[in-house]
Structure formats: structure tokens, C-alpha cells
Write a structure and sequence with these properties.
The protein has 175 residues and is of the alpha+beta class. It is 35% helix and 23% strand. A 5-stranded antiparallel sheet has the order 2-3-1-5-4. A hairpin with a 5-residue loop joins strand 2 (39-44) and strand 3 (50-58). Residues 134-143 have a biased composition (Basic and acidic residues).
Length: 175
């Protein structure tokens, strides 16, 4: 992918008191280039529990290509493309949530846990132009993903890994 039509990409995940912070960081690093640094902010939840916010901003083209490369493994790219009108806001930012548990295992799929926010380049800077640029980029991702995956490994779709406590008790949606 030669041109990267984003100004930057932000990734963020919460490490709740019930989670292993290192594992959450590892899940987030699934999408990050090796040299990317994680920012860490410690907060207190409504009930006094510890919540650590881990985040990274990728601003260089090579780093953004790396993030997009990882997102190309997303099986639901067509779904994201269909939902772009809802996923791009009036400030030209594209939002995705990817599954933190899957990311910890090295897989990429939509779900709770990691927020991806990409500021889409758009000239003029309006939602319609941003949606079109995002559609073009994600369409290329889908095409690249189809080219690279010769065999379709769907075994994760039927497996139930809820017994395996990788990073949490699936309490991500308590906000």
C-alpha cells in the first residue's frame, strides 16, 4: 500500500483491575510496530477500582502501514465498509473496536476491548470525502487480505475460548 490516507491512527485499551496489564499491553501491541511506545495513564473507576489506560498514536506512514497490514486480517472488512457512514464522524475520524481477547492470541476481529481511531485525510475536510477515502483504503485492504489468505481458516469462529482467561472476565462493557 503506497499511499496512507490517514493523518494518524490512535489505539487504546483499558486494563481493568481484573486483568493482567502486561497481557492487555501485548494485545494492543498486536497492531503496533515494534518501535511504538505505549502511553500509560492510571485512573480510578466509579467503584474505586484501578483502571489503566494504555494507548499509542502512530503518525508516520510506515507505522500506519503496519497497523493497516494487521487490520487486513480482519474477516469483517466488508461489514466495516458497509457501515462507514456510521463509523466515520463529522471530524473525518474512522472508529473501529477490535476484540482484545482475539488480539492477545494474535487474531484480528471486531469486538470489545481495543479502540482504533484513524483520522482520515479528506479534501475538502468533510464526512463524505472521508467516507470515500476510507472506503477506497478498506477496499484495498480487503483485496490484499483475499490475495494473502489462500486457505480460509475458520476454526476460531466455532471455538469457545471463554474458559480461557487471557486478559479479562469479559467485563469490558461496564462503562
Amino acid at each position: 500500500m503506497a499511499k496512507v490516507p490517514f493523518h494518524y491512527v490512535d489505539l487504546r485499551a483499558f486494563a481493568y483491575a481484573t486483568e493482567d496489564e502486561k497481557r492487555v499491553a501485548d494485545a494492543l501491541r498486536t497492531f503496533l510496530p515494534e518501535d511504538a511506545e505505549l502511553d500509560r495513564v492510571e485512573n480510578v473507576g466509579h467503584h474505586g477500582d484501578r483502571i489503566v489506560v494504555l494507548s499509542a498514536r502512530i503518525e508516520n506512514a510506515d507505522g500506519m502501514r503496519h497497523v493497516l497490514d494487521r487490520l487486513s486480517g480482519l474477516d469483517e472488512v466488508d461489514r466495516v465498509i458497509d457501515e462507514l457512514d456510521q463509523r466515520v464522524d463529522d471530524n473525518c475520524a474512522l472508529f473501529l473496536r477490535v476484540d482484545k481477547q482475539a488480539a492477545f492470541r494474535g487474531d484480528v476481529r471486531l469486538g470489545p476491548g481495543i479502540t482504533v481511531r484513524a483520522k482520515v485525510e479528506a479534501y475538502p475536510a468533510n464526512k463524505e470525502a472521508a467516507v470515500e477515502n476510507a472506503r477506497e483504503t478498506l477496499g484495498r485492504l480487503a483485496d490484499d487480505g483475499d490475495d494473502e489468505s489462500g486457505d480460509d481458516d475458520d476454526e476460531d469462529d466455532t471455538s469457545d475460548d471463554d474458559d480461557e482467561d487471557d486478559t479479562s472476565d469479559d467485563d469490558d462493557d461496564e462503562t
